[in-house]
Specification:
Largest sheet: none
Helix content: over 70%
Radius of gyration: 22 Å
Order of helices and strands: HHHHHHHHHHHHHHHH
Structural class: mainly alpha
């Protein structure tokens, strides 16, 4: 019961943080999109592709290894070893980014601004290494309040600075400052809220034990990153900063928002799966709830984008972003397909199967995502990239089901029984956009859909409210 209420508390705090983060993100992006040209977002997209790839190596999977490890096998020196290795490694990566990757990226995209932007953004790797162990300790205790509040405070302050800079003509540097300021504020805040302090000690044995798990999760992160950014790489190279800026907006509104919402629940359940890894029956029960709650929260957002993307873009951002409409809709449809089995990698990692997670990531990246997105970009530009992403998600959907059945005993019919009615309702509603092009009618359809969605989800909503009302009496 204590674990159940820790889970509820973690999800509640992550949900609160998500509301603030996404609400703030949407408002800030609307403001910055009005103040800046698509090219500014495209240049940041250029830098993000290369920094993100190197950044996948920054953690070496050590945080996941520390979270997944059973309590009896975890020693204080493990934390110290992870901290010092992470810090030294981050410093080395900053040097690589500044003097090697930066010039390569500038030449690749023919954009000299990257020579100064990439070194500045790479500083985030250092700040990230300084807070990794703090976040691990907090996550293991499922005390997500201490993660959410610092994150919200730092982003609010950084967003205010970015808007002020954009108003004063700093252009792309307003976006750069937003990222760096938020990252560094987190270092000071997490150091204050977390009592852990590093000691000057290092253990080769600890490093070997952590790295043996972390190397697989690092590999998984690299291939997942390739999956998520091959479109950025190709669009930026073949179509330029303007097209990438347009595509980035559509991606942020759909995939990034969806991913953040999923992380609200998945970040809580990874340590839960790790604690319950010897009890597969209970783990499966929690996994089904993850699928259901993700569907309850995310489906209305995706349907809203599918039906109302055009008025949202035209009246919210302006006609200079009109090319983002169709990619946004295609990505939202891909989100509907992807959602049903999207948490399987977190489940595999929590059960102590990082090697299997890596193999699966390699297959879906090199065998599915990359070919479809490459062909889409080459022949149909940003719309082709979004269509390729949708086609890839449909194929990966079937691969996911095979992996789950073979290694966890979870049948797709079991997943569908948890979200089947919602999935059918969403599929029918999404198809209406093909036959209706009137904003008012589409708005009415969305309101009717939302009412039905809430009605179907009502038993689960009541269960959540019951847990909330009785949380103190059962702790």
């Amino acid at each position: 019961m204590i674990l159940k209420h820790k889970i509820f508390g973690g999800v509640a705090w992550n949900a609160l943080g998500l509301i603030v983060d996404n609400g703030l993100t949407i408002v800030v992006k609307l403001i910055l999109a009005r103040l800046l040209l698509p090219e500014a977002f495209g240049i940041i997209g250029f830098a993000t592709v290369f920094i993100g790839m190197i950044g996948m190596f920054s953690d070496l999977g050590m945080s996941a290894a520390l979270i997944q490890r059973k309590e009896k096998n975890l020693k204080p020196v493990d934390y110290d070893t992870a901290f010092w290795v992470g810090l030294v490694w981050a410093l080395l990566l900053v040097v690589i980014l500044s003097f090697i990757v930066g010039p390569i990226a500038a030449s690749f995209y023919n954009e000299n601004m990257l020579l100064s932007i990439i070194p500045v953004l790479s500083i985030n790797l250092i700040s990230g290494s300084l807070i990794t162990v703090h976040i691990v300790n907090i996550t293991r205790e499922l005390d997500f309040k201490k993660i959410v509040l610092p994150r919200n405070l730092s982003r609010i302050f950084a967003a205010a600075v970015a808007i002020i800079m954009a108003l004063n003509g700093f252009g792309v540097w307003s976006l750069v400052s937003q990222s760096v300021i938020s990252s560094f504020l987190l270092v000071f805040i997490y150091s204050y809220v977390s009592p852990w302090r590093p000691k000057r000690r290092f253990s080769k044995e600890s490093f070997r034990n952590i790295f043996s798990f972390g190397i697989y999760t690092t590999g998984t992160s690299i291939f997942n990153y390739l999956t998520g950014n091959i479109d950025y790489l190709l669009i930026g190279k073949l179509l330029g900063a303007h097209a990438l800026g347009i595509y980035t907006l559509g991606y942020n509104v759909t995939y990034v928002v969806r991913g953040q919402i999923m992380n609200v629940i998945n970040s809580v359940f990874f340590p839960v799966y790790s604690k319950l890894q010897d009890d597969l029956i209970t783990t499966k029960r929690y996994y089904f709830r993850v699928i259901k709650y993700n569907c309850i929260v995310i489906y209305p957002l995706m349907i809203g984008i599918i039906l109302l993307a055009e008025p949202i873009v035209i009246y919210g951002l302006g006609t200079k972003w009109i090319e983002a409409i169709i990619p946004m809709q295609l990505m939202a449809v891909a989100g509907l397909v992807h959602l049903l089995t999207s948490s399987n990698t977190v489940l595999l990692r929590g059960l102590g199967k990082p090697k299997l997670e890596l193999i699966f990531s390699i297959i879906k990246t090199l065998g599915v995502n990359v070919p479809f997105i490459v062909l889409g970009v080459i022949y149909y530009g940003i719309i082709g990239a979004a269509a390729g992403l949708l086609a890839a998600k449909i194929i990966i959907f079937f691969i996911n089901n095979f992996i789950l059945k073979k290694f966890t005993g979870i049948n797709f019919s079991e997943i569908l029984s948890n979200a089947g009615n919602l999935f059918i309702l969403n599929s029918i509603t999404a198809l209406s956009v093909l036959f209706v092009n009137n904003y008012l009618i589409l708005g009415v359809i969305f309101v009717i859909y939302l009412a039905l969605h809430i009605w179907i989800s009502l038993p689960d909503i009541r269960q959540i409210l019951f847990l909330f009302n009785n949380r103190k009496n059962n702790v």
